[in-house]
Design goal:
Length: 541
């Protein structure tokens, strides 16, 4: 049923009043509805970006049956999304994870959650916008006959800067534009997942459905397409590494909470958007991965090419007509662009929320909101400049192993790749801290009063979610040697853990010198529930 103007105005007033009770004036403009909020979360999660980036790592380490590892990853992450949804329903505030940590445990705890999460977001922007380069250069070469080298550091930096500049401009002119770009991302992702699956099915699959239940010898060195050795162990070896190909995809849903202050009826909308983005992302990923696997050539040589870095998804799509290949390349490029736009939007809202509490150097400048567009304009600049600086790290690429203290920086791995390896570990650590913070608040007697509550299911849901996050964090960062599959393909032995420690030390230096926790404003007590559908009063006669 369509809402009247009076009802819409009442909802806006309820949202603003609730934000005021939480301690903040309404500075950003509430222009996003449910689908916009969902679209931002889904575009950040981006099945296409994840699958196109990590398909070879998954199938190359565990074979076709790696597809089924989607189920536990999405299932456990859904538990995390439920915990986040309860927090988002009660605290619909920009800079979600930072605010959740601050309000469930304390200002210092929240600062650390925000620092870890914020660095991971900025790294992710650089990762996504550099990751598009091979696809966009291939598309340009196909359409124009040029010979751009997608591996050239100069090309990578130029394309990345161009993407970030355009994303920053679009994000700057209003949250509604960010929502439009995210909506486009949803449409494109739908075409690019289900469309690719349908196109490949029309051309003809090379395997039956039962192929998805086989490892195709991936656990054995002689038959592993990437040349890694799991000693014949699939569950205790190959699966533990291949699951990371899914773990690196299924997050980003939390960004729905980052844009809460620009979302209408956020207490209701955000929890639904989080769950919806995760579930739809899981379905889309499963369909796309299944189609790609069933379309791998049946010959040993063809299969090994399609599941190796020298071939990968382009080798599978080569079965399609050239125009279809170019169409899907365009779709992939748009998906990467939409993903980067969503991540940058989330990062800027975190920076805005941080600086509004005087938690960063130059907070008064960073917190500035554009009077014309009602966007955190300077926070967006920060969220553009830092990823550009990160992108420059592609130029640091040692030609031989470099020994540093007790660990080795491997040859032919650029510094950005090493930094990107922190991106996921930072996400999992900040997620774990957020769930732990929620558990601490519940143990202290905190009662969520938003429209979405877990009730008696809270403790089993939160405990299982925390256990999963902790186990996956260990799986991501644990050093197992450069010669191991994990070390050679994912975390580069000690590198991911060391990068995480270095960034934590940088944060610790600032934290101990500036003590931002002492500058944080006094928390507002919330004695009433977030806004509900309050009926508009009829005008007096």
């Amino acid at each position: 049923m369509k809402q009247t103007d009076a009802q819409i105005e009442q909802h806006h007033k309820n949202d603003s009043d609730h934000l005021q009770r939480l301690g903040y004036p309404q500075e950003l403009k509430r222009v996003l509805g449910f689908f916009d909020n969902f679209s931002v979360a889904f575009s950040y999660l981006s099945p296409m970006v994840g699958v196109y980036s990590l398909f070879v790592l998954g199938v190359g380490t565990a074979g076709p049956s790696y597809i089924w590892l989607i189920v536990p990853v999405v299932g456990f992450m859904l538990l995390v999304a439920l915990v986040f949804g309860e927090l988002a329903s009660h605290y619909p505030i920009a800079g979600a994870l930072y605010q959740y940590g601050k309000r469930t445990v304390g200002p210092g705890y929240g600062w650390w959650v925000g620092w870890i999460y914020g660095m991971a977001l900025l790294v992710t922007v650089a990762s996504v916008d550099t990751g598009v380069v091979p696809y966009i250069t291939t598309l340009i070469n196909n359409l124009t006959g040029t010979k751009l080298d997608g591996t050239s550091h100069v090309v990578i930096v130029v394309v990345t800067i161009a993407f970030i500049v355009v994303q920053t401009l679009l994000n700057s002119v209003g949250a509604k534009v960010m929502g439009i770009v995210a909506r486009l991302g949803v449409y494109v992702e739908t075409i690019g997942t289900f469309g690719v699956a349908i196109a490949l099915a029309i051309v003809g699959f090379h395997h039956g459905f039962g192929f998805l239940f086989t490892s195709n010898g991936a656990e054995n060195l002689k038959t592993n397409p990437l040349g890694v050795d799991f000693g014949g162990n699939w569950i205790a070896g190959a699966a533990l590494v291949a699951i990371l190909a899914h773990s690196y995809i299924f997050y980003g849903f939390e960004s729905a909470g980052d844009i809460s202050e620009e979302t209408k009826q956020a207490s209701k909308v955000v929890p639904r958007a989080m769950r919806g983005a995760l579930l739809y992302g899981g379905i889309a990923s499963f369909v796309l991965v299944a189609a790609l696997l069933l379309s791998t050539p049946s010959s040993t040589h063809g299969y090994n090419l399609a599941t190796s870095f020298s071939g990968g998804i382009p080798a599978i799509l080569a079965q399609l007509p050239s125009w279809a290949q170019d169409l899907f390349l365009l779709v992939v490029c748009i998906a990467f662009f939409s993903c980067g736009t969503a991540v940058q939007g989330a990062g800027s809202r975190l920076a805005y929320s941080y600086s509004r509490d005087s938690q960063l150097p130059g907070s008064n400048w960073i917190r500035k909101v554009s009077p014309r567009f009602n966007t955190p304009i300077n926070a967006l600049l920060i969220s553009g400049i830092i990823p550009i600086l990160f992108a420059l790290l592609v130029n640091i690429n040692p030609s031989k192993n470099v020994s540093v203290l007790w660990f080795v920086f491997p040859a032919n791995v650029n510094a950005l790749t090493a930094l990107v390896s922190f991106g996921v570990s930072g996400i999992y650590l900040s997620f774990l801290l957020t769930v732990i913070g929620s558990m601490i608040a519940h143990a202290r007697g905190w009662k969520p009063m938003g429209p979405f509550k877990l009730g008696r299911w809270y403790w089993p849901v939160s405990i299982l979610g925390a256990v999963y996050l902790a186990a996956m964090l260990v799986n991501i960062v644990i050093p197992t040697g450069l010669g191991s599959p994990r070390g050679s393909l994912f975390n580069f032995d000690w590198i991911t853990l060391v990068v995480m420690i270095v960034l934590l030390l940088i944060g610790a230096v600032y934290y101990l010198i500036a003590r931002p926790d002492r500058r944080s404003p006094k928390l507002q007590d919330l004695d009433s529930a977030p806004p509900v559908d309050t009926p508009a009063k009829a005008p007096k006669a």
